[in-house]
Amino acid sequence: VITIDDVRAADARIAHLITRTPVRSDCTAHVLGEPSTSSPVTVHLKCEMFQRGGSFKHRGASNAVLLAAEDGARVVTCHSSGNHAAAVAGAAAACGLRSIIVVPKDIAKTKLEATRAAGGDVRFSNESTVPSREEAVREVLEECPGAVFIHPYDDARVMAGQGTLGLEFIEQSPELDCVFVPISGGGMIGGIAVSVKAVNPSCEIWACEPAGVDGVGADAARSFVEKKLVDDLPPPKTICDGLRAKMGHTSYDTFHRLVDNVVTVSDDDIIDAMQVVYDKCKLVVEPSGAAGVAAVRVAARDGVGLASRKTGKAFKNIGIILCGGNLDLSVLFDKIHGDIERLRGK
User: Fold this and answer.
1) Is 81 annotated in the active site?
2) Taking each helix axis from N to C terminus, what angle separates 187-199 and 4-14, rounded to the nearest 10 degrees?
3) Were both Cys, which of 139, 166, 182, 242 would link to 196 (CB 3.0–4.6 Å)?
4) Sequence-ordered list of residues with C-beta below 8 angstroms from that of 166, at least 6 positions apart, any chain
5) Cα dihedral 247, 252, 254, 258 sign
């Protein structure tokens, strides 16, 4: 379990390795789909896609790698579907450490390239499942005695680093009364919940989770309702490659104590949110990064309501974490090149 002191210590430790990302508060009408004059709420977008490496993962990875280096580590390793991989590789390179990164074979091309560009020694797991990745990490640890494993979310060092995102956000926007946070393994939302509620205990934390195309993979929603860690569901089949993990015991403890609600969203909702953010707000987010916007739109549209679960009072200032922007835009640019070639052919 981490505390606000752990987050503040991480904030000081990683300051030279991260970017203080901006907040946009001028997109309320676009996010809610309402005329700006009619909305009683203001939406604040925390633009973490402008973080080094393009996602929040750089915060937790930097904190964990720096602590490992202080303890004398020479090699670090992890498994990841993408953003954590590149973040650990980049942090390790900044600290002069070797990194061996296990990724699935279906990793997004942009994330694979980013991991290699950051200096990671990439190894592929036999299958894309988490157990297969974990097996590959065990092989790395046998190969390199003394190597330090950095879990992508169920790790107090990582969670404290992710918590600096919440601390930064609540300092930038102290008026927030609710923050919508995408959830997967639970490291980001756990760190954010600790930091935000330490500064403003009345601010609610709402988790945003993809239901998956079959609707059976939302473990956070089930865990929230059943008030226990539900860990026997299959990973959600979703376009959100960064939101397919399951909560671990460390992250669930914080989730259980500090998260106030869970909103599930469909992949169609997420695509709609991506389009709104890109077309109207002029920001690029990956599917996982758009889950918070999707959840706010769903809550406003489907009767869940943008109001406190404790008091029933309507929120006036909603924060949304846009947690990553590592989107493969090659299809878009291939189309533009194709249009150019057709023009030349005229």
Assistant:
1) yes
2) 110
3) 166
4) 7, 179, 191, 192, 193, 194, 195, 196
5) positive
Is 125 among the residues known to form the active site? Answer: no
Please, is 200 exposed, middle or buried when counting C-beta atoms within 10 Å of its C-beta (0-12, 13-18, 19+)?
A: middle
Q: Which region among 162-176, 181-195, 215-229 has the lowest average model confidence (pLDDT)? A: 215-229
Residue 177 has pLDDT above 60, yes or no: yes
Contacts 24+ apart (CB under 8 A), 274-280: 276/30, 276/31, 276/33, 277/27, 277/30, 277/31, 277/322, 280/27, 280/30
Q: How far, in Å, are 87, 128, 168, 270, 287 from residue 105 at the CA level?
A: 18, 6, 35, 24, 19
Q: According to the model, what pLDDT value does residue 261 have?
A: 96
Q: Greatest CA separation found in the chain?
A: 65
Residues in the chain: 346
Please state, in angstroms and rounded to a whole number, the distance separating the CA atoms of residues 65 and 59: 10
d(CA 269, CA 159): 28
Q: How confident is the model at residue 39 (pLDDT cuts 50, 70, 90)?
A: low
Active-site residue among 46, 55, 57, 99?
Answer: 57
- Banded pLDDT at 264 (limits 50, 70, 90): very high
Residues 6+ apart with CB under 8 A from 306: 41, 178, 296, 299, 300, 314, 315, 318
Indicate the pLDDT class of residue 35, thresholds 50, 70 and 90: low
Burial class (CB in 10 A: 0-12, 13-18, 19+), 268: exposed
User: pLDDT tens for residues 270-325?
Assistant: 999 999 999 999 999 999 999 999 999 999 987 678 999 889 999 999 999 999 99
Of the two residues 214 and 207, the one the predictor is more confident about is 207
Question: Which residues touch 301 (CB under 8 Å, ≥6 apart)?
Answer: none
Measured between alpha carbons, how far is 188 from 180 in angstroms, rounded to an integer?
A: 11
Which one-letter DSSP state was computed for residue 336? H
Which pLDDT score, from 0 to 100, does residue 213 have?
A: 84
